[in-house]
Amino acid sequence: MDLSFILNELGEDREQYFNAVAPPIVQSSNFAFDSVSDMRNLLLDEYKGFLYSRGNNPTVAILQKKLAALDGAEAALVFGSGAAAIFASVLSQVKQGDHIVSVRDPYSWAKRMFDVILPRFGVTTTYIDGTRIENFEAALQPDTALIYLESPNSFTYELQDIEAVAKLAKSRGIVTIIDNSYCSPIYQQPIKMGIDLSLQSATKYIGGHSDTVAGVLTGSSALISKIFASEFMNIGSGIAPFNAWLLLRGLRTLPIRLQRITESTKVLVDWLKAQSNIERVFYPLDPEFEQYELAKRQMQGGCGLITIQLKADKLEQVERFCDSLQHFLMAVSWGGHESLAFPACAAMPAEDFSADEPKHRMVRMYIGLEDPGYLIKDLEQALGKM
Ligand SMILES: *Cc1c(COP(=O)(O)O)cnc(C)c1O
């Protein structure tokens, strides 16, 4: 399916709404029926139509069609956050006594689920270095029900060989879930590589304007309709129609935003690598990145997240650099129009800082839509103040 068709036409039926070019926000909690038999029909299988907006809603349905097609998947569910997509998908695939193999340091709220919530129900998790396929094989147990991936991750960008992991999992009857937030479906389509369920935080590139929190889960119709009928409806974390509409608006410009971000990021990476007070720059599509070959093979592009490792002896130097930035905002999240800085040392008590720990000197930078020269000037003055 053409990308332009997906983003501009798929799922839209303008004759249904006065030929309006922008789809309507159907702000209704419930939908009326003409007959008992019509009502019964949907009550017996709510996935099929519009009954109640905790389940399906017409504005959200347009968005779901587009997001499924972007992933090359049969079906999609849209959640009120990426964390909800993680929670529902993982919960749907495990039962008491099951075992999960996860890449180490997955997204913080996935880790919290594995470490704090699931053990209460007898589900255990083994974390592995996912850069080597042998590590997956070695960690599998007879009760392993799920392999959880995140490629690349969103701080140091370690990748997994997605096709190889999917093949291994299939041969053992194990379900695979991947967090594809870094790439978005524009740059990586894990479902096409054999992954069962792909999720992403739509807060990031899909929304693209730092004004909506949302999550996406895609997979086969069989898996998605099953998750709809249990975890999705039960958790009740579907997206509101207005937020779905904001994501539809974000989708229209997704490819050109990413194109701009990718180009600017390349310029920034090259500039950052030449700076004397920067020890190392992490970017999966930098030829010096350890897994560059794999990144080139399975990703169609690199996004705007990069991490710099500062040369610093003291916490104050890292703080001075970050505090001095004038155009990069200091904030979590990413994927919007605005460039951001997220120092790792902000996520720990100040007294725990050790210059000997490279991670403590890392600052994650998100490159937004500003002119690269404008961003370089800001970095230059801030590095000068270290
Ligand atoms: C932001 C993020 C999430 C969670 O998404 P929310 O929309 O914030 O709930 C999950 N995974 C990754 C990699 C993220 O960056």
Structure report:
It is a single chain. The protein is an alpha/beta fold. It folds into two domains: 3-252, 3-Layer(aba) Sandwich (Aspartate Aminotransferase, domain 2); 254-383, Alpha-Beta Complex (Aspartate Aminotransferase, domain 1). It has helices at 3-8, 36-44, 58-71, 82-93, 108-117, 133-139, 162-172, 184-187, 221-235, 241-252, 254-273, 292-298, 315-324, 372-384; strands spanning 75-79, 99-103, 124-128, 144-150, 175-179, 197-201, 215-219, 278-282, 305-310, 329-330, 340-343, 362-366. The strands form two sheets. It has a seven-stranded mixed β-sheet with strand order 1-7-6-5-4-2-3, with helices on both faces. The chain has a five-stranded mixed β-sheet with strand order 8-9-12-11-10, covered by helices on one side. Helix 7 links the parallel strand 4 and strand 5 (175-179). Helix 4 crosses helix 9 (221-235). 44% of the residues are buried. The model has no long low-confidence stretch (mean pLDDT 97). The structure holds pyridoxal-5'-phosphate.
Produce the secondary structure layout:
Layout (H helix, E strand, L loop, with lengths): L2 H6 L27 H9 L13 H14 L3 E5 L2 H12 L5 E5 L4 H10 L6 E5 L4 H7 L4 E7 L11 H11 L2 E5 L4 H4 L9 E5 L13 E5 L1 H15 L5 H12 L1 H20 L4 E5 L9 H7 L6 E6 L4 H10 L4 E2 L9 E4 L18 E5 L5 H13 L2
Parallel strand pairs: 2-3, 2-4, 4-5, 5-6, 10-11
Antiparallel strand pairs: 1-7, 6-7, 8-9, 9-12, 11-12
Helix pairs in contact: 3-10, 4-9, 13-14
Bound molecules: pyridoxal-5'-phosphate (PLP).
The site of pyridoxal-5'-phosphate (PLP) has 11 residues, from helix 4.
